[in-house]
Amino acid sequence: MVPTKRFWALVAVGIPVAAASAAAGAPSIAVAYDALLVVVAYGSTFLAPSTSRLSLRRKFDTVLSVRAANKITLTVENEGLETIQATLRDEPPPLFDATRKEFKVEIQSRRPIELTYHVTPSERGAESFRGTYLRVECPLGLALKEVRLATEEPVRVYPNILALREFDLLKQQGRLKELGIRKSRTRGLGTDFESLRDYTQGDDYRKIDWKASARRGKLVVRQFEQERNQVVVVCIDIGRHMLAEVNGVRKLDHVLDALLMLTNAAALAGDFVGLLVYADNVRRYIPPRKGRGQVGIIIEAVHDLVAEPVESDPVAAFAYLATRWKRRSLVVNFTDYEDVDRARDLATAFGPIARRHLALICRVQDPKIEEVLHTNVATVNDMYQKAAASMLMEDRKAATTMVGSAGIHNLDSEPQDLAAKLVSFYFHVKERSLL
Predict the structure, then answer these.
(1) 221, 196 Cβ separation under 8 angstroms
(2) 3-state SS class at 245
(3) Sorting pLDDT into bands at 50, 70 and 90, what band is 154?
């Protein structure tokens, strides 16, 4: 039983009665009043509408996306004969940020109602919904009957799967620019024959199909499409360099979001996708395969990755890859390096890969560095911070130059732009037939 405001108001009304009865030497009157009030309130809970035939179903995606608003739908149905008026409270995992938890509901007999709210998980991992609670209104309005519905349910939080749906939708509509992804519209690139079309002014004469032109009596050119069945291998460093946070989020989490976007784009383009996860040794290896099913396999393989406080061994990792995959591929390595020494070691390890494959290193840049560099100096502390940021930026630029001299491409991006820039680079590789 949960007392209502009306109950406490009647208790307050009894205070003058208690004072008067005490002054008259009859305190039992006040005790009897309060006891009667409690008995009536408690008794009214037995007259509340029955919830024994009340059911609740919670609907959400098979897995939830971290740092994204996930829709939760509650369907409440009353198979009883009485209308139930109550306050319903759903209990998501404690680390989820919910837009709403409580609903004022009127559940009529055999008329289901739907309630929706959104939750934003802050971290990947396994969680569970903790149940649903109802406070049912009772006759006289003195008390609420509290009922707990057994709706406990496990849920898994993965990297941002919802972003993949948005990518697929915008790609179908030709609106990838809204995600910051640049894709060339140049025609005729690639080497896989697609179709024939009439010659138009400005077409390359080398694309003219002379046999088809002779048959049709007019110039006809061959049109090519981007090559399919190419290979993208993604390598992820989960060593100590990925423990740092950017905007309160681990670099590894930003990396996983970009990884999903790239693998999804490659799968849609008909390319093979593979994965290598390493730290002080190789942790996971998924050989390149094609198809949307491969994206699901990779998602399942990375959803529980955590950065570890160990020194990574890229030499062993890339030697492992070299012995298991030799076909020319786009090899993307997610890692980090801040100075020339670390860059030299990485170039030594990744250099042999760059001689056979198209190699790209992706790093997550902290936007606070740029913010500090563009901040006006007002105090001595500001001066020191700006000097430190300037030195850090110079070190990163020198490290980038070192890596570039080994024939390795470099992508250094702030978290919000990393996925878009990476997919844009992939499209550029496809469009220019660099593989």
Answers:
(1) yes
(2) strand
(3) very high
The 3-state secondary structure of 92-133, one letter per residue: CCCCEEECCCEEEEEECECCCEEEEEEEEECCCEEEEECCEE
Number of structural domains the chain divides into: 4
- Total residues belonging to the chain: 435
| SS3 call for 155 | strand
pLDDT tens track for 375-395 = 888 888 888 888 888 888 888
Please give the distance of CA 48 from its chain centroid, rounded to a whole number. 44
List the one residue out of 364, 365, 382 whose CA is nearest residue 373. Answer: 382
What is each CA distance from 375 to 143, 315, 383, 386, 402, in whole angstroms?
59, 40, 10, 8, 29
60 and 27 both lie in a single domain: no
Single-letter amino acid, residue 59:
K
Domain shared by 119 and 154, yes or no: yes
Q: How far is Cα 374 from Cα 361, in angstroms, rounded to an integer?
A: 27
Q: Are residues 144 and 108 in the same domain?
A: yes
pLDDT tens-digit map of 206-228: 778 888 888 888 888 776 655 66
Residue 103: how many CA atoms within 13 Å on its side-chain side? 20
